[in-house]
Design brief:
By secondary structure, the chain is an alpha+beta fold. It is built from four helices and seven strands, in the order E-H-H-E-E-E-H-E-H-E-E. The protein has one domain (7-151): Gcn5-related N-acetyltransferase (GNAT) (Aminopeptidase, 3-Layer(aba) Sandwich), CATH 3.40.630.30. 29% of the residues lie in helices and 38% in strands. It has a seven-stranded mixed beta sheet with strand order 1-2-3-4-5-7-6, sandwiched between helices. The protein is globular and about 40 Å long. Bound molecules: coenzyme A. Coenzyme A binds at residues 26-27, 73-76, 81-87, 109, 113-116, 118-119, 122.
Length: 152
């Protein structure tokens, strides 16, 4: 699968329906439509999407607090995972942010999310802390730890 760099573009509110489809297919506790709408309304949030052909197959949202940025989420549609698209999108995002003066990145990730942790490590993120029982799970009685990771 060959995806060119110009197949990454800024997200717009017209992508909302597709974002929800991908989010619901890929995430354990998906963001709501309202959360996406808040992202589009926020001055400090920025989103990019990655296309395969004309179809949006993944996206990333960041929150910018200069000179730092938080990776809020990165999601690739299940049928397109594992072929390098997540890494391509994250690499593009970090380069775009760096051009705008960002020099430190941080994020939280579920301790069990091996794919995401593998992606972040492959881009140089390091685990610097644990937030105990931070995430809800599909079982209301069980919470899951978050790893705090940073890249400088
Ligand atoms: C996490 C996610 C975005 C990764 O995207 P992807 O396109 O599948 O990942 P890539 O194919 O680009 O792989 C990038 C790196 O991640 C690592 N990786 C990917 N899948 C992995 C897995 N299942 N286990 C361990 N490491 C994995 C690999 O080390 C790879 O690095 P390499 O190419 O240098 O070997 C994708 O799995 C996803 O959308 N998951 C569901 C949503 C989610 O959990 N998002 C993160 C929290 S918001």
């Amino acid at each position: 699968m060959n995806v060119q760099a110009n197949d990454i573009r800024s997200l717009s509110v017209s992508d909302l329906e597709r974002l929800l489809v991908i989010e619901q297919a890929a995430q354990q506790t998906p963001w709501s439509e309202d959360t996406f709408r808040q992202c589009f309304l926020s001055d400090s949030r920025k989103g990019w999407g990655i296309l395969y052909g004309q179809v949006l197959v993944g996206f990333i949202w960041v929150s910018i607090i200069e000179p730092e940025a938080e990776i809020l989420e990165i999601v690739i549609a299940p049928e397109f995972q594992g072929v390098g698209l997540g890494k391509k999108l994250l690499r593009y995002t970090l380069a775009a942010l760096e051009e705008n003066g960002i020099n430190k990145y941080f994020l939280e990730v579920r301790a069990s999310n091996e794919a995401a942790i593998g992606l972040y490590r492959s881009m140089g993120f390091e685990k610097v802390g644990v937030r105990k029982q931070y995430y809800s799970t599909i079982n209301v009685n069980i919470k899951e730890d978050a790893y705090l990771m940073i890249l400088k």
